[in-house]
Structure formats: structure tokens, C-alpha cells
Specification:
- By secondary structure, this protein is an alpha+beta fold.
- The longest helix is centred in the N-terminal third of the chain and has 16 residues, at about 15-30.
- Strand 2 (about 55-60) and strand 3 form a beta hairpin.
- The protein has 6 helices and 13 strands.
- The protein has an 8-stranded mixed β-sheet with strand order 3-2-12-5-8-9-11-4. It has a 3-stranded antiparallel β-sheet with strand order 10-1-13, with no helix packed on it.
Length: about 240
């Protein structure tokens, strides 16, 4: 935790020093080396970082402010350009084990899902956690014919304030370079919306409010599901690289 290691970010000099320290402890305690380089095993990552100056979000012809209104995430590799309609899909879950499905009766084909994390009281915590993972959620959205997702954080359960979430958006994301490691292949966009801007922007004209949705989510009731008028357009410029850790 020394300041000299500067946080030990993956692939950084501080991380390398920490790894070398651990390797030295292994040697001191008589462990047999099993890495490609003694105790060290090099691992390669692909890095993605949004070039915000060349990226944009537009909702109903209104240019949004990245960082204040919403964020374009890079844990999902965003397509250069996406334009689509929107539909609020409640929790955005389809869980056969609980006979639960948020998608029937909605026009979802070619749309972007808008959802709030959580689950109804009828679903166990284990099932809810499993189906809310990135890969499982994308599988559900893809099966419904959707192309991307917008998540609304529940303001009652935000571990850190939006300003800090927004400041972290400049950090690069990393993905192991190995077959089968990307479980969101085909997802064209992942956006996170500032809860404070949801009513005035995302839910405008729907007849629904964030307070209504949060109240239902806190009671673990089924959330409303409804179309959202207008279209959203995302332009995403991504700087790519590689890091060896």
C-alpha cells in the first residue's frame, strides 16, 4: 500500500514492483517457481479508453453532456455509431427458474434496453446476481432482439456519488487477451445514466418518474415497463492498446 507503488495499477511500474516483492517472498519460503519467467507469469490485456472529445450522445436531437448526463462505458466494446429507439424493461431480467420475464409484450427488436438493477422479491439473491452479470444480461437482451443497454443506478444504493463515478470514466478498461474471454460480443453500446438527470431527459414524456421506479424497486415489486419516445444516437471513439502485466 506504499505511496511509492502509486496504486499498483495493472501493467504499471508499481504493480511490477509489487509482483517482484511477492515473488521474492515465494522464493524466501521455498516455493518452486512455475511461471514462464521464474515466479513471474506474463499476462497480456487489451486496453480500451473512450476518446471523449470525439464521442457524443444525442437524445431526441438534444446533445447531452458526457460525464454530467451520462457515460459511455468501455467494458462493452462500443460500436463507432449507434442510433436506436428505447424501451424501459424494468429490471431487464428473464429468469426461467423463477418463471420471471420482463420482455413479453414490449417492442424490443433493434432497441436499446433501459433498466434499473435489482430483482423482484420472488427471486433468490443467488439467481438475481447470476442473471445480472454482464454476459447473462447481454444474452437476455440479445434474445429479445435488443442491441445495447442503458443502466440507471438506484440512487438508494450508489456506493459512491455520481461525481466520483464520472471522474473514473477516464480510466482505461482491460480485457484478457485469450479466446472466449469477452462475453458481450455483439452488444453495440453500454451507457450509464445519471439518476439526477433521468426525469428531465430519459423519462420525459413517458408519464413515469424515477421516484416511482425507485419506490417499486425498494419494495422489490415488478417495475413498470414502457416505450420511451424518441431515439438516441451514440458516437464512440475508442483508443486501443495492449498492456503486459
Amino acid at each position: 500500500a506504499s505511496d511509492k507503488l502509486e496504486g499498483r495499477n495493472t501493467g504499471s511500474p508499481g504493480h511490477k514492483k509489487a509482483a517482484e516483492y511477492v515473488a521474492a517472498q515465494f522464493e524466501k519460503n521455498g516455493l518452486k517457481p512455475a511461471g514462464e519467467q521464474g515466479y513471474i507469469q506474463p499476462v497480456k490485456f487489451e486496453t480500451l479508453q473512450l476518446d471523449e472529445a470525439k464521442s457524443s450522445l444525442t437524445l431526441r436531437d438534444h446533445r447531452l453532456t458526457l460525464g454530467e448526463d451520462a457515460l459511455i462505458g468501455t467494458r462493452v466494446d462500443p460500436a463507432p455509431t449507434v442510433e436506436a429507439g428505447l424501451v424501459f424493461v424494468g429490471y431487464g431480467l428473464k429468469v426461467p427458474e423463477s418463471n420471471y420475464n420482463d420482455f413479453p409484450g414490449l417492442d424490443t427488436k433493434g432497441k436499446i434496453a433501459v433498466y434499473m438493477g435489482g430483482s423482484p422479491a420472488s427471486m433468490s439473491a443467488a439467481l438475481a446476481a447470476h442473471y445480472q452479470s454482464g454476459g447473462e444480461r447481454w444474452a437476455m437482451l440479445k434474445a429479445a432482439g435488443m442491441i445495447g443497454a442503458i443502466s440507471i443506478p438506484n440512487p438508494k444504493h450508489m456506493d459512491i456519488p455520481w461525481a466520483r463515478i464520472a471522474s473514473n470514466r477516464f480510466q482505461m478498461t482491460m480485457q484478457l487477451i485469450a479466446p472466449g474471454m469477452v462475453d458481450t460480443v455483439g452488444q453495440r453500446i453500454a451507457i450509464t445514466w445519471n439518476p439526477e438527470r433521468v426525469d428531465a431527459e430519459l423519462l420525459a414524456g413517458t408519464g413515469h418518474t424515477l421516484d416511482e421506479i425507485v419506490t417499486a424497486a425498494e419494495a422489490r415489486k415488478q417495475l413498470p415497463r414502457f416505450p420511451i419516445s424518441g431515439r438516441i444516437k451514440a458516437i464512440s471513439a475508442v483508443n486501443r492498446g495492449e498492456v503486459e502485466s
